[in-house]
Amino acid sequence: MSSSTVDVDGPFYDDLRIGDRFDSAPAIRLTEGLAAAHHAIVGGRLRLAFDATLSMEVTGRTHQLAAPAFVWDTAIGQSTLVTQRAIANLFYRGLIFASAPAIGDSIRTVTTIVGLRPASARSGRPARGLVTMRIATTDQASRRVLDFHRCAMLPARQDVGSQAPRGETDPPRVDHSAAQLTSAVAGWNLGAYREAAPGPHFAELRAGTVYRVVGGDVVSSAPELARLTMNLAMIHHDRTIAGKRLVYGGHTIGLAAAQITRALPSLVTILAWQDCDHLGPVHEGDTLHSMVSIEQCEPLPGGGGLVQLRSQVRATDAEGGVSDVLDWRLTGLFA
């Protein structure tokens, strides 16, 4: 009897084509258990994700809000069918919540290749390229949840330096309208939130204010978070790939989001990202500190408002080296 060996692997850069669609990741139900495990790793103090009574009063849902970081980490994990061989993740563009999932909802994600660009060749370095993906996430009722672009670097099987970029390789920063930003929270009772939660609320916030989060967060349980979110990127699990495991980018963003809720504990929820750039690698054991800036405040007709925030994160490694690792612009909802 003959036998054969099949490698379980992900695509290389030059295996991909514009329009390739990846939709076979399992749908994931957002359960209380998964939410608790996620919170144990990235933390956060978003009130509606913990206070079920207040969450139901504000949102009108019969189950409490699923923390936005829990939702986007799960969606990104589902998209890693494409990036199992990722060398690094570079950026995200235009992430927006079209609806706000609650605990008990299920989400599924379709990932489509929209851009391919060879990386600059360097002597002695294997060939590689940048892959831009559009990630579309829906719930169990086929309601749109998330829609955004992600760009990752993948190795190539052969030299691709002479190839021209194809498709949408550098999506622009997206400035969503107030109507687009608030579609996910239409009907929410911000007055109830304002009455129940301590401030500072929207009326007390001012553009130009910068919050320095003095206490940092150590990066721990990195492979556990990758497993929890079904992230298949080998570099997050297998240290033999590059000699040292790289932390899942959602881990860095999740800790940055947790630090925002310490700086601004009255944040109702996160509605969108304008852009998010990974500036450098993060490894388990690093400690992250952030500066959170208020860039713009826009009142809403019914009270409360939208606040444009910027989170800039630095990592300190075990040897004391400090580096910039994240530059993230996002929109928060305040009552």
Observed structural traits:
335 residues, alpha+beta, Thiol Ester Dehydrase, Chain A, 12-stranded antiparallel β-sheet, 12 strands
What string gives the helices and strands in order?
A: EEHHHEEEEEHHEHHEEEE
Return the CATH topology.
Thiol Ester Dehydrase, Chain A
**Principal-axes shape call:** globular
Rg estimate, integer Å? 20 Å
Task: Determine the mean pLDDT.
Answer: 95
Strand portion: 25-35%
Cα(first) to Cα(last) distance is: 69 Å
What is the CATH homologous superfamily assignment? Hotdog Thioesterase
CATH-level-2 architecture? Roll
The number of helical elements comes to: 7
- Roughly what percent helix? 10-25%
Description:
The chain contains 7 helices and 12 strands. It is globular. With 335 residues, the chain is an alpha+beta fold. It has helices spanning 32-42, 52-59, 68-78, 178-182, 190-196, 222-228, 249-263; strands at 21-22, 28-29, 88-97, 106-118, 128-139, 144-155, 166-167, 210-218, 269-278, 287-299, 305-316, 322-334. It has a single domain, classed as Thiol Ester Dehydrase, Chain A.
